[in-house]
Write a structure and sequence with these properties.
Layout lengths: L2 H4 L9 E6 L33 H10 L15 E6 L9 H6 L3 H9 L5 E4 L1 E2 L5 H12 L3 E5 L20 E7 L17 E4 L3 E4 L7 E5 L2 H18 L5 H10 L21 H5 L15 H4 L54 E2 L27
Parallel strand pairs: 1-2, 1-3, 3-5, 5-6, 6-7
Antiparallel strand pairs: 4-10, 8-9
Helix pairs in contact: 2-6, 4-5, 6-7
Amino acid sequence: MQAEKMWKVSTGKGVKVAVIDTGVNANTQSLKGQVLTDEVPKSVSYRASDDYDGHGTTMAELIAGTGRDGDLKGLAPGAKIIPFRVKFEDMKRSTEEQKKTPDPTAAIRAAADTDAKIISMSFGSPGPDSYEQAAIDYAASKGKLLIAAVGNDGQKSGDTIGYPAADHYVVGVASIDASGTASKFSSHGGYVDLAAPGQNFPGWCDATFRSYCDNVKGTSSAAAIASGSAALIWSAHPDWTVNQVTRALIETAGRSWPKNKPSTYLGYGAIRPRVVLSNPHYNPGPPNVDPLRKENGGDALAKSASSSSSSNQASPSPSAPTPSQAPKTASSGGTSAAGSSTESSNDSNSTLWIALGAVGAVVVVGGGALAIARARRAR
């Protein structure tokens, strides 16, 4: 990805990214001064900077970490993070705390009302859920770029793409390894839009924040890198709309197959923001035309936000997932970028799309192209 070359053009400065996750610890060396806790809407602000797992902080650092004192340096170190702490099915906290912690759907809707240009979501559930889709429609109508991990069930029987990645107006991101090949664990299907590096990252081992683990992998990481990529582009072109930023990511993606036949493994290809940043005269196309309008069923910016008048509705009580919606059509494509879903998602059943490996040494992603490294130490 040639991050150091891109940073000469853009660092993501001026762009805010909403990270909907387990919370974001604003006190890590890499995130000091990077987390805008005061900008979280009060309705969903409960302990937003108290990460109960370490996952959300890792995602925030992959996006906007500064690398201070050997901590993780993200792809867009000039960007800022608006943290959202939501509950997932593996949230091991008291019943009272779980009641106070908002669900992802409420956070999506709240994030749409902030100054964040990008909403990064590294989680998923079977879905779809009508409340979640309404919240996403609302966020899209506000001009937000919604990015989500597609899931880590690629090696499981009956693999499907998780929601919100499979929702309309959400860019679903798959994972690739350093060679540009689809990660074995990365889920595949008609809802994959783009791919990004998703393996061999350092990340916080747990909520104690004493040390990083190495070989963090998952489409969670890929979604974070995609969010950082979008931040770099939007920072360099602050007058572009969400449609133009999305189109730039799609048009410049690395692929060895026809663009009109997206791969079920890597979508339109591997993100390459450097191609956009290296061309000061890059043409992003029309501002009001969604490049994914066929898949999305229309252009969100052309629709009225009044259809989201149910903004304060609570999400439905949990119920068992039931299959329903078929995936978008797409070609089987290749698994290298070198040259069915189910219905009834419930927020309480959302899971984080990441896995932690063993503690190790310095990690370099992309064969040295994107250097995201850290010194081993314990706190």
